[in-house]
Every structure is written in structure tokens, then in C-alpha cells.
């Protein structure tokens, strides 16, 4: 491994609406077949807040409000040979009907109870759930 290998910065937005959170089933190579929140990669010179808004709109057609910076996870995936620091946000649904905007990366969007998330979860979500974090307790 190169001495220049560094973790990437990923983002994930936990969107709350009517006591549920929005998740999508992934078709992208990374995390294929797992469930995850909208999110992606922090771009060069982009603020974290702008990334949360941009990725959510690009992926799901949903607009968010009341964005709060949440926890982070350190996600080392030896199977996929990836290492991400995933920054989570908690936000409220503002507008828009969730729909597949990137059909090559997403199979479908659904709303779930926090205590009854679908399986399997993408690694960052799985790691976050192990911390007993609850986006409805903030």
C-alpha cells in the first residue's frame, strides 16, 4: 500500500419525516445490495453542510432543513479495500418526493422506523447503529 493512501471523507444524511428515516437500496459497486442514507463524497473546497444538501437533492430529489452535524464513523472495509471517515448529519424533510435520481446507483427509496431498519446495512450505517445513536433524541 502506498504511503500516500489516505481515508476518504464520506457523508450521510439521516432525514427525519413523520418519525421515520429515508434510506435507499444501493446498486453502486460500493455497498451493493445494502441499505444506506443519502450521501456521498465531500468535494474539494465544499463545506460539509453544502455537501449534505447537494448529495441529498442529487440522489433522492428531497430538500432538507434544520441540518445538524451528527457523529462520525471510521469505516475500514477490508473486503472492498476501502477506508472512509463518514460524517453524518441529521436533518428534517423539507420538500420533494423521494425518487430514484441515479438508477445506476440506487434501486429504490423507502422510509423506515429507526428501530426497524432494513438489512443488510451499508458499513457506515451498521457502525453508527452499534453506538446506540438515535437521531430522534437530539
Which key terms come to mind for this protein?
138 residues; globular; 7-stranded mixed β-sheet; single chain; 2 helices; mainly beta; 7 strands; Nucleoside Triphosphate Pyrophosphohydrolase; 14% helix
Please give a structural write-up.
With 138 residues, the chain is mainly β. The protein has a single domain, classed as Alpha-Beta Complex (Nucleoside Triphosphate Pyrophosphohydrolase), CATH 3.90.79.10. It is built from two helices and seven strands. It has helices spanning 48-60, 123-129, and strands at residues 8-17, 20-26, 35-36, 39-41, 63-77, 82-95, 106-113. Strands 1, 2, 3, 4, 5, 6 and 7 form a seven-stranded mixed sheet that branches. Strand 5 and strand 6 form a beta hairpin. The longest helix is centred in the middle third of the chain and has 13 residues, at 48-60. The protein is globular, with a radius of gyration of 14 Å. The protein starts with 7 loop residues before the first strand and ends in a 9-residue tail after the last helix.
**What's the shape?**
globular
First-to-last CA distance: 40 Å
What is the domain total for the residues?
1
What is the radius of gyration computed over CA atoms, rounded to a whole number of angstroms? Answer: 14 Å
Class based on secondary structure composition and strand pairing: mainly beta
CATH superfamily: Nucleoside Triphosphate Pyrophosphohydrolase
Q: What is the chain-wise order of helices and strands?
A: EEEEHEEEH
